[in-house]
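Section 3.1 - Work completed
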Amino acid sequence: MVLQKSSPVFAQPPATEPVAAEVDLELEVPIWIAELDAAEARTRRAAEQKLVEAGPEAADHLPAILDELSIEARERLNRVRKQWAQAKAEVQLKNDLVRLQNAKTLADALEAISTASEVEFDTERLGNAIDMQKSIDPPRSPLTFWHAVDHVLDQAKLDINFYGGDRNTLMLMPRDENRPSRVESAAYVGIYRLEPTLVTARRVLKSPELSGLNLNLTIEWQPNRTPIGLSLPIGSLNGSLDTGEAMVPQATGETIDIATNSELAQSEFFLPMQLPKTQTTKIERLSGSLTAMIPGRRESFELDLNDPTAEQTKDQMTVAIESIRDADPLREIRVSVELEQAGRSLESHRQWIFENEAYVVLPDETRLDHLGYEVFRQTNSGVGIGYLFDFGAEGSPPPGAKLIYESPTSVVRDTVDFILNDIPTP
């Protein structure tokens, strides 16, 4: 079975060119911020443009206190921040390319993939079952994440145990003897890997309308980039059989929703197609589209629990402490999470935001995990979550205690097209 790769659809890069590398952002950004309030309009416009061109990296050098800025300067800075967030989001949509040309062993190859993708590989639980010094024949050109992983695992005769990893880690295991090549079994598109696993045909004699042909597939995504609200519009499916007959979807609804989980980088789904009218031996071609919201890189928010107005903004997300309430014998820390341009990410697919880590770090660096949470508010742009903590005899957070909230800080809509070729039928 040979599956054809299709080209992912990516957002266009920002129109502006980045500031030259020799610019010292730590020195220049505070000057440009001050110039947003300059007397001449030309200077104000130039400062805004310089901040935009500096890119998202300039956000790390903003002055800690911006209270003295005028209303006009604040509006200019808000426009800059939105363009930073958009530029950062567009970069996150691009597929990281893995360069394996210098990898000579399995250890070298896995290290190269981890460096490019920030995805780790668990090889220790199998002990000596994995030979990390096994020779690898590297490809001549860079590969996307999943193509690189499959290229290496095929040579090392390894597979993946998706139930043994987490949002940043893939657990490797010895391959089943009859397992076909991962590269030859898969199609790669965007951050996804698609593999047909089962084709079943049924003919219901008494009710012909119930007859059908189902194609089961697994879909895998880069573990640290779990899609939100992943779906496949039925109307995008288009295929043909080796007999020339067109494949037609069954009338089952408008979309196929695919479950995603940040702790499991794989899901299974099936495509319900009508039973062919003529005898066939393979699906010659089947294409469709996948639509999802793709979260950006995870960031860590640190909020002082002794500051009743503690608030922090990163990219498109703002996290704030609303209140700390008595929930005898516990304390409830109420947190507001707001996301600019949330779109569909906070419509019906908001489970990702409840999976984010939230914990308290005490002054002595002790980590205190929450004992549960309750959602007390949901809007189109954010949520309010109350986390329960046990602070022991003190009853309240001690001075210096901080709430740590970890989350992707931007979400971007992404649509990619896929093509599957030469799939055997029963």
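Second construct:
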Amino acid sequence: MALLEIVTHLNPVFIPDFHLLVLDIPDTFQTVSLTDLPTDWQNDTHYETLQTYFSNWLAQPDVLTVSVPSAVVSRSGN
């Protein structure tokens, strides 16, 4: 579910202030697929494994951006 869909159904009293940020992302980016991750990767027991995976990328980034699966919306990415 997209953020816009969630916000649409909220009581206006609970909607936080938002800021729009537009980024021009290059066509070359790294994609992390579900097959790259442990089977139950959303489980808190894999926190250290996932943190190490992305820490390694941050130490030597070969691309500007990384697309990762959403832990909340299974068919979506971030």
